Every structure is written in C-alpha cells, then in structure tokens.
Amino acid sequence: MSRRLAEVAKKVGVSEATVSRVLNGKPGVSEATRQAVLTALDVLGYERPTQLRGERARLVGLVLPDLTNPIFPSFAVVVGGALAQQGFTPVLCTQTTGGATEADYVELLLQQQVSGVVFFGGRYAEAESPHDHYALLTARKIPTVLINAAIDDLGFPQVSCDDTVAVQQAMNHLISLGHERIGLVLGPPDHVPSQRKLVAARDLAAHRTDVSEPFVEHTLFSIEGGQAATSRLLAKGVTGIVCASDPLALGAVRAVRRHGASVPEDVSVVGYDDSALMSCTAPPLTTVRQPIESMGNAAVELLVKEIAGVRVTHGELLFEPELVVRGSTGPAPSTAPVRGSLAASGTP
Predict the structure, then answer these.
(1) Among 145, 206, 269, 329, which one is most buried in terms of CB atoms within 10 A?
(2) Across-strand partners of 115?
(3) Do 2-52 and 163-290+324-345 agree at the fold level?
(4) HSE-CB for 321 with a 13 A CA cutoff
(5) Is 288 helix (H, G, I), strand (E, B) or coil?
(6) DSSP labels for 175-238?
(7) What's the pTM value of the predicted model, to 2 decimals?
(8) Nearest to 8 by CA among 57, 49, 59, 42
(9) Which of 40, 109, 112 lies closest to 23, judged by CA?
(10) Rounded-to-10 torsion of CA 298, 299, 300, 303
(11) What span, in angstroms and rounded, lies between the C-alpha atoms of 51 and 111?
(12) Regarding the domain delimited by 59-161+291-320, which CATH topology (the fold level of the hierarchy) does it fall under?
C-alpha cells in the first residue's frame, strides 16, 4: 500500500496524504487533484478501491492498426495532444503481426474503464472483418469516434477525409498533364475508403472523353503491395498511377524503376495522405494531403462532448483534402514507352 501511495504521489506531484484522502473518499481535495490521482492510478496499473470502480478513468484509448504507415502516428500526435489539453490521458494501442488484435485492445480498454476510444483506420473500414467488439463499446455506452470511412450501421461519429474529392484532385491533375491511361492502386476490395475512391474514379472517367476507364489493382497497404500492384499495371500500359496511401506510392516508384523506367519522365505517381517525409523522397512525392490537424481536433471535440453527455451528430463529417504537387508527376510521355519496353520486361 505504501509503495502504491508513493508512486502515485510522485506521478501527480502531491503528498502521499493527499493520495490517501482520494483513495479513501475523504473531503478536502480539489476535483482536479482527485481526477489526477485517479488517472495516475489507472496509468500505473493499480486497481481502484471498490468504492471508486464505478467511475470511468480519464483515459482515452487510441487504437491504431500499425505504425508502419506514418499517417497513423501523425494522427495520434494531434489527437493525443488535444486530449491532454482537455485533461485526458491517451493510451496508445498499436497492433502488431501476431500480437494483440483490435478486439483484444477493446477488452483491455473496457477493463481499464476508459472514458472513450478513438479508432484510426481499423477493422470498421473492412466489410468482411469481424465487428463484434464494436458492439461491446455500444453496449457499455463508451463514447467512440472513428477516423475515416466505416461500414454502414456502426452508429459511431465519424471524421473522414473526402475520398471522392481526393481521387478527383489526383486524376484531374494527371489528366491535365496529358495522361489518358491511368491506374489505381487501392487497398483490399472490402476496404470502404478504397471502394469510395474506385467509384469516384470510374464516375470521373465516364464523364470525360480524354481519359479511359481506370485500370485497377487491389493490394495490401504496404510498400511491397504497391510495388506488386504497380508491376501489373505497367504491363497494361499505364502512364499515371493514383495510390490509396503514400507507402503504396513509394512501392509504385520502386516498381517503375525496377522496370527500367523513370518517375516522372515515363510514369507519374500520386500518393495519398502527405505523411511525414514525403517531401524528402526521390523524387518528392506528389500526394493528396489529409487535413490531419482539423480532423484530429474535430474527433476530440466530438468525443469530449459525448463524454460530457452532450448529444453529437453520429453522421459522417467530411473534410476537404488538398493536392500537393511535387516531383513525382509530369507530362505524359509522347510515345508511352511503358506499353512496349516496360510491359515486356516483366518483374526482375
């Protein structure tokens, strides 16, 4: 007991006597100090006294699919900072191959009596994945916000970047450079944001005479996935490629080079997210920027209001992306060498 008092007191910066008063429910402690002590208790992994277990901790779970895509840590920094300003402590839950699943993290967060949860690109965006763990959050009335598009009928507030506008910006940019054969590198077929991007691309092509129906490849969200998908697109003679993430776009650039061609002289590549360091790649990546700051702050505002019992919209808030033109896009090649030499070369 004394060790617990000492650790919590050190964490909060108060006396052990103050911690003891909070744990025993005695008066004479400000509400701010009381909440700080309870949060420290949760963070340090100590069980709350029986009389305090009915209260939710001022912890908020941030559930990320992985850290390999730099857009997710960027979102977590914005959301975590905004939560801290509101007096909440973010708890980062990152999935790894063979490690804890999203469902496992939900169980853990429920055990910790968190005040709320923010998901970043989770299973909610995959139509064929299990979604039972979201029902647990609903049943326990845990305020929850989803960042970017989800399957229908989950009933949580959503903060999304507009996939339709993103594809329109990317494709119109390539079309303005003279590209007629454009390929799409998207996530898995059941991935909702990818589905939206595909619908938008086909709709745009259907209303223009200067571009063909887009060539489409679905793959995993990774550099390797982007490389494999792009190799297949190059065999179809594309001169411009729109990718559903920046790592996919980096894989596309690698594939073009391994086929003996150059970016953007032979093939132009557009990414999506404008994640960290994309201006430092070779060539710097043209990409569609998600407004991370605005989206992250909006997600926290929705969550905090729900925690406070204020009713918020459970619809989807769509945020406008921004095309950032850099060095990976250029005029379409006049003789389209990809259709001949690249298509014949195969994957080395």
Answers:
(1) 269
(2) none
(3) no
(4) 25
(5) strand
(6) HHTT--SEEEEES-TTBHHHHHHHHHHHHHHHT-SSSPPPEEEE--SSHHHHHHHHHHHHTTT-
(7) 0.82
(8) 42
(9) 40
(10) 120
(11) 16
(12) Rossmann fold (3.40.50)
Token duo for residue 175: 């079309």
CATH number of 163-290+324-345: 3.40.50.2300
Domain map of the chain by residue range?
Answer: 2-52, 59-161+291-320, 163-290+324-345
Sign of CA dihedral 64, 68, 70, 71: negative
Quickly count helices (H) and strands (E) in the chain: 12, 12
Question: What are the residues facing 61 on neighbouring strands?
Answer: 91, 117
Tokens of 90: 């973010």
* β 322-324/286-289 pair status: antiparallel
Residues belonging to the chain: 348
pLDDT tens per residue across all 348 residues of the chain = 577 778 888 888 888 888 888 888 788 888 788 878 877 877 777 766 755 545 566 899 999 987 888 999 999 999 999 999 998 989 999 987 778 899 999 999 998 889 999 999 889 999 999 999 999 999 999 999 999 999 988 989 999 999 999 999 999 999 999 999 999 999 999 999 999 999 999 999 999 999 999 999 999 999 999 999 999 999 999 999 999 999 999 999 999 999 999 999 999 999 999 999 999 999 999 999 999 999 999 999 999 999 988 989 888 999 999 999 999 999 999 744 444 444 444 433
How many C-alpha atoms does 263 have within 13 Å on its Cβ side? 29
